[in-house]
Amino acid sequence: MSDYDVVVIGAGCGGLGIGALLSHQGRKVLVVEQSNLIGGCCSTFEQKGYRIDLGASIIEFPQVIDWCFKRMGTSFFDEVDLVPVDPTFSAMLSDGTKVTYPLSLEETRKEIMRVAPEDVKGWDKYSKKFQGFIDTALDGFFVSPMNNFTDMVKLFAKTPALLKYNSLFFSSYEGVIRKYFKNEKIIESFSFHSFYAGQPPALLPGHFAMLPYAEHAGVYYSKGGMIGIPKGFQKCGEKSGMKIRLNTAVKKILVSKKRVRGVVLEDGTEITSDVVVSNINSRKMYLEMIGEEHLPWLAKAGLKSYTYSMATPMLYLCLNYTPPLEHHHTLMTLPMEKVNNYWFNHYLKGSFPKEQFGILSWTTRSDPSLAPKGHHIIAVTLAPGVYKLKGTTWDQEKPRLKEEIINYLDKTYLPGLKEHIVLAELSTPSDFEKRLRSPEGAIYALRQDLPHSMMFRPAAKSKHVKGLYLVGASTHPGGGVPTVIASAMIGADLIEKYEQ
Ligand SMILES: Cc1cc2nc3c(=O)[nH]c(=O)nc-3n(C[C@H](O)[C@H](O)[C@H](O)COP(=O)(O)OP(=O)(O)OC[C@H]3O[C@@H](n4cnc5c(N)ncnc54)[C@H](O)[C@@H]3O)c2cc1C
């Protein structure tokens, strides 16, 4: 008799989502989490009376998250106190122009008319294309397993209309955006979104060009901080008996006769279970927790060939003034060409730029209760930062960089900033690695280009070890809060099918 039916390693949204679903199926589930908080990248920590989001700052595709709660007889909107974010974002362009995209498609059209009347037709065509793509692809692509080539063929057989969108997968984000828009201001306003999937516009597959459009289906923030979303899953899971242990790190996954038998914790305790779900980086999990001795040579070679996704330094700012911003999300943008150049000339060469771009996420705009009265919080997602800096380390550079970035923001997007900082913390890729044990500080686990997507991403049902399942950013469909929750639904379906 095993201690649990299922042990889940990691209490990220993927781990808690599947934990709650499997508990709802009547299984005895334990979720173990190495840190002192649930939520992983979608968590909120408290410091001196400020509640600061660690990573994720909004969610898109609320309908996907809702499907998961609906499977447990409730709804996303009942379980999590959501604050609508409208406008979806505003972009401060490098030439000083501000472009704001309201939730309403019609109002957005008017904004495009104001900034670039020649692109209104392009906007209409782009909207039509991606509404069609989302309607066709969302429930099939997002919640169908993609363990092998057959699964992909099955998906296209079930949804033949998807074939119409085939070319998107083989073009780039930039190629698609430039096909519909000609005005450089509009193109610049969409230039940062490619990093929502972890690649520059020139390299990211074209179907991700749906991101700026998809936001018009609803963008939300969770009251009390983004941790509200994983808390919603915790609440549902615990109602069905799910247990969570914090400050509990797994060291090894027990395997015998090619089947998992449970986990060994770092303190040496063994917990037995015939099903183990990994919510952590899958390359690391296979090579360090399962061990190369349990893997065929081809699998080892395949796993070692995976590249970790980009890392992103974050600057958490707690302020005693109202920042000169208007909306929850302000993108600090650069022309698309410069963003690509940044990737090739800085990121890939190991340097971090002075000229910043990224997101100013003013969370107290949506929920003032996150900070003491009259105070504010901005979480700044900076330009992607490569883990291995050339000739130096993040730990060494951190004090200088923090000062430099604050000076830069004070001179550009946030005048007055320096005199109003109560607390400022720079979280580097190396800090992120220490905090969440995410190798190289990767924010989406593995890269999200074609060779790391769909059936090429590690499979949700392990091909090498029976009883081992994967959820979260490391498996299909990839990183992002709604996306990892989709992986939880896929994983729960597979376990229901194969583990009776
Ligand atoms: C800076 C940043 C900004 C982002 N912004 C957004 C956004 O605005 N919107 C959006 O939708 N998505 C965003 N994302 C992406 C999204 O947050 C993640 O893709 C998603 O939350 C990942 O969930 P996950 O289930 O894969 O697990 P993770 O969040 O990676 O959680 C894994 C958990 O496993 C734990 N763990 C690791 N090793 C062990 C071990 N040995 N034993 C036990 N536990 C272990 C970790 O502590 C962690 O809690 C952002 C991510 C980052 C980092």
Name its key features.
globular, binds flavin-adenine dinucleotide, 18 helices, 3 domains, 500 residues, alpha/beta, FAD/NAD(P)-binding domain
Descriptive notes:
There is one protein chain. This protein has 500 residues and is α/β, with parallel strands linked by helices. It folds into three domains: 4-82 and 223-306 and 447-498, FAD/NAD(P)-binding domain; 106-217, no CATH class; 311-436, no CATH class. 36% of the residues lie in helices and 18% in strands. It has 18 helices and 18 strands. It has helices spanning 13-24, 62-70, 76-79, 105-115, 120-143, 149-158, 166-169, 173-180, 184-189, 211-214, 228-239, 282-291, 297-305, 336-345, 363-366, 394-411, 429-436, 481-498, and strands at residues 4-9, 29-32, 44-47, 50-53, 82-84, 89-92, 98-101, 220-222, 243-245, 250-256, 259-265, 270-278, 314-319, 329-332, 358-362, 376-381, 421-427, 468-470. Strands 1, 2, 9, 10, 11, 12 and 18 form a seven-stranded mixed beta sheet that branches. α1 (13-24) links the parallel β1 and β2 (29-32). α1 (13-24) runs parallel beside α11 (228-239), α1 packs parallel to α18 and α2 runs parallel beside α18 (481-498). The chain is globular. Residues 9-15, 32-35, 40-42, 55-59, 249-250, 279-280, 312, 314, 381, 436-437, 443-444, 472-473, 479-481, 484 line the site of flavin-adenine dinucleotide (FAD). Flavin-adenine dinucleotide (FAD) binds at residues 9-15, 32-35, 40-42, 55-59, 249-250, 279-280, 312, 314, 381, 436-437, 443-444, 472-473, 479-481, 484.
